[in-house]
């Protein structure tokens, strides 16, 4: 992680209800952001999470989103992809996907935040993390669940999804590792 990102990380960590050591324990700073797409490198998850948080903070200001607490964009942005700590393992230079005990990408991240890190998420924070992928890969009942969540928290979920897409498709575009 470069010096600029390290400073940003220190700033963002001040707003999280978890410590750096808790994140280290679950492998947050080692995990890649993906297996073969954006930031598929050691530590990619932490960099991606910084990018998502920064984007979500900008969208929060631009859209005048009122979160249940000022820390919400930091919590959502930094913790939205915790599942990657459990599903990707570094094996030398290779990244391997492993089975996780949790179901679903967003739901797994919310569960890890709550059950393993002890974060007390507000419903809107949980919904934003659970549905940050938007409709990608969803069908049937899962689409119905997304629709129901969007009825309750449309701007918050769409802003989170947009922040994630901006990070992975614009900020990190072309950076796929080695």
Description:
By secondary structure, this protein is mainly alpha-helical. The protein has one domain: Hypothetical protein af1432. It contains 9 helices and 2 strands; from the N terminus they run αααααββαααα. It has a two-stranded antiparallel ribbon with strand order 1-2. A hairpin with a 2-residue loop joins β1 and β2. The longest helix has 20 residues.
Shape by Cα distribution: globular
What spatial order of strands do you see in the largest sheet? 1-2
Determine the strand fraction and express it as a percent band: under 5%
Radius of gyration (Å): 15 Å
Distance between the termini: 15 Å
What's the level 1 CATH class?
A: Mainly Alpha
CATH architecture designation: Orthogonal Bundle
Provide the residue-averaged pLDDT.
91
Question: Helicity range of the residues?
Answer: 55-70%
Number of domains: 1
Largest sheet: 2 strands, antiparallel
Number of strands: 2
CATH topology: Hypothetical protein af1432
Name the structural class.
Answer: mainly alpha
* Uncertain residue ranges: none
Number of helices: 9
What secondary-structure arrangement, pairings included, does this model have?
Layout: H1 3-13, H2 20-25, H3 44-63, H4 72-79, H5 84-87, E1 88-91, E2 94-97, H6 105-116, H7 123-130, H8 141-152, H9 154-171
Antiparallel strand pairs: 1-2
Search tags:
178 residues; mainly alpha; Hypothetical protein af1432; two-stranded antiparallel ribbon; globular
Brief description of this entry?
The chain has helices at residues 3-13, 20-25, 44-63, 72-79, 84-87, 105-116, 123-130, 141-152, 154-171, and strands spanning 88-91, 94-97. It is mainly alpha-helical and 178 residues long.
């Amino acid at each position: 992680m470069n010096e600029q990102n390290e400073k940003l990380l220190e700033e963002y960590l001040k707003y999280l209800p978890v410590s750096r050591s808790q994140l280290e324990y679950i492998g947050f700073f080692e995990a890649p952001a993906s297996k073969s797409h954006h930031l598929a490198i050691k530590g990619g998850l932490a960099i991606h999470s910084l990018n998502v948080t920064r984007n979500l903070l900008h969208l929060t200001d631009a859209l005048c989103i009122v979160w249940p607490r000022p820390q919400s964009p930091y919590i959502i942005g930094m913790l939205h992809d915790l599942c990657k700590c459990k599903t990707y393992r570094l094996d030398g230079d290779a990244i391997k996907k492993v089975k996780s005990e949790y179901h679903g990408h967003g739901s797994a991240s919310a569960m890890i935040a709550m059950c393993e890190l002890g974060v007390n998420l507000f419903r809107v924070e949980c919904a934003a993390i659970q549905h940050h992928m938007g409709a990608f890969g969803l069908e049937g009942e899962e689409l119905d669940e997304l629709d129901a969540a969007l009825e309750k928290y449309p701007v918050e979920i769409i802003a989170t999804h947009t922040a994630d897409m901006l990070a992975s498709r614009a900020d990190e575009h072309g950076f796929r590792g080695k």
